[in-house]
């Protein structure tokens, strides 16, 4: 693809897919009964585990895709479809049932997986690795930036919940969903345009 890589755009894309604001209600429920000081420690600990998973996919994702013999255009189109579905769920969220009587503090689940390194984020990372070969350093910076912002937001979940309330968090999630939707459509357009160009060149 002849689209220049942008660290800022990649950071925003990862941030929108991780959707930390949308994860705040789930996190608060999972942390119910855990002392507030301990909550920050848990978010940082599980956040580092999530970062390790993301970085592993960043550096070994290309080999995984090579095994499947996937072309860049296919990855871009499939990634656009996935992001499109994620964005629609952010704009029109469904009611999520969570366990309100969790007996122990969370470990890895749900913070590391799926909040920070869930299937959607990992799939997006694989798409970016395939779409921008040779830009691993820029992608690494983007992953670190999006991860850092997400961890800070999750660590401040009780405060943000008190300030923004349920409606404010929902409004932010929908805004992020709209922006992600536009990025998904652009990814689809880029994939289809590149596929059309290559097809015409081969005729």
UniProtKB/TrEMBL annotation:
Superkingdom, taxonomy of origin = Bacteria
> InterPro entries given for it?
Multi_antbiot-R_MarC
Q: Which Pfam families match?
A: MarC
Q: How does it sit in the membrane?
A: Multi-pass membrane protein
Subcellular localization: Cell membrane
| One cellular component term from this protein's GO annotations in UniProt | plasma membrane
Which keywords does UniProt give here?
Cell membrane, Membrane, Transmembrane, Transmembrane helix
Q: Which residues cross the membrane?
A: 6-28, 48-68, 74-95, 107-127, 139-163, 175-196
Q: Which family does it belong to?
A: Belongs to the UPF0056 (MarC) family.
What is the name attached to this protein's record?
A: UPF0056 membrane protein
UniProt source species? Marinomonas aquiplantarum
